[in-house]
Design brief:
By secondary structure, the chain is α/β, with parallel strands linked by helices. About 40% of the residues lie in helices and about 15% in strands. Bound molecules: NADP nicotinamide-adenine-dinucleotide phosphate.
Length: about 300
């Protein structure tokens, strides 16, 4: 295992404060530096969980690390990411590092994938968990795309494609796409929702796009030892996504965590599945329309430049 560039820095207490003061995990020119705890040891599983500075992703990261994994923590908040690395390192069963990257920017997604390819020799599991469901008017990313579509789908598509060579080399390996039961068909004449925008529609089309990506990628990966599945983790969990809207939580983050961990750990799950929590399920009909999937993939390749 190649040594992590910042490996061995004990991230805790005064050291964590110092790292925060100098602004760790920031884009230095074009290169992203990590807040590093300790490097993965020989044989330790390496798992990247996007959006693990809060909510479902943070609980998934905690549980994986307590089971002995090396977790690559990701999100925008340096404070929360660094704190989670410190917590995991202090707990002692697993290890962690943190990279800050905004999935609303393709440049930052590419910087994240470059940093992971630079710093790690293997990646056993990629959990595309980061997601948004925003109130208020339609917003565009810095790249000019409807923000839910970019953060929830396009950036996960790009990150996955950039990391595929490393995942393939690490096979048997897994990709888990955290989607939702909230799925609405994509209108290919108005993907960016210039007409008839609502946050619910924007969220739901981006979540269906993740399922379509899952089915499409599974076909491409047949025989590679690399599997990909998607899931609805749980309905209205007690996370910021739900609570900051003033909505009432109906389930706990622990329930969603169990469902994600099932796709990460359970043997013989196969590939190309969509699960409602732990139960195999059907996605929206558009996910089963091969022509629509081909069209979506072509669009994502054109918009991200990643193929
Ligand atoms: N909550 C539910 O009931 C529910 C139901 C079905 C599916 N889901 C799915 O589960 C996943 C996690 O949701 P959650 O409820 O845990 O949400 P959350 O509490 O809002 O957490 C979202 C995570 O994503 C990160 N994130 C948000 N925007 C980002 C960006 N632009 N760039 C990079 N990271 C970003 C956040 O970290 P930073 O703020 O540090 O960037 C945070 O770590 C999402 O994909 C969601 O669609 C949730």
């Amino acid at each position: 295992m190649r040594t992590h560039p910042s490996a061995g820095i004990p991230v805790g207490g005064a050291v964590l404060a110092a790292l925060l003061a100098v602004g760790p995990s920031s884009l230095n020119g074009q290169e992203l530096e990590a807040v590093a705890g300790s490097a993965p040891s020989e044989g330790q599983r390496v798992v990247l969980v996007t959006g693990s500075t809060g909510g479902l992703g943070r609980e998934v990261a905690r549980r994986l690390a307590s089971g002995g994994d090396h977790v690559i923590v990701h999100g925008r908040s340096v404070q929360r990411g660094s704190e989670l690395v410190a917590e995991i390192e202090e707990q002692g069963s697993g290890s962690a590092s943190f990279y800050s990257a905004d999935l609303g920017s393709f440049d930052e997604v590419r910087a994240l994938s470059r940093a992971v390819l630079r710093d790690y020799e293997r990646l056993d599991v990629l959990v595309n968990n980061a997601g948004i469901w925003l109130e208020g008017p339609r917003q565009l990313s810095v790249d000019g795309h409807e923000l839910h579509f970019q953060v929830n789908y396009l950036s996960g598509f790009l990150l996955t494609r950039e990391l595929l060579p490393l995942l393939r080399r690490s096979a048997p390996a897994r990709i888990v796409n955290v989607s939702s039961v909230a799925q609405r068909p994509i209108d290919f004449d108005d993907v960016m929702l210039e007409e008839g925008y609502s946050d619910g529609r924007a969220y739901a089309q981006s979540k269906l796009a993740q399922v379509m990506f899952t089915f499409d990628l599974a076909t491409e990966l047949e025989g590679s030892g690399l599997t990909v599945n998607a899931l609805h983790p749980a309905t209205m969990m007690d996370t910021d996504m739900v609570l900051e809207r003033g909505a009432r939580a109906r389930t706990s983050v622990d329930e969603g965590t169990e469902a994600v961990l099932h796709l990460v750990n359970a043997p013989d799950l196969g590939s190309g599945g969509y699960f409602n929590q732990m139960t195999p399920a059907q996605g929206n009909a558009q996910a089963h329309d091969e022509a629509a999937r081909v069209r979506l993939r072509a669009l994502a390749e054109r918009l991200t430049g990643g193929g």
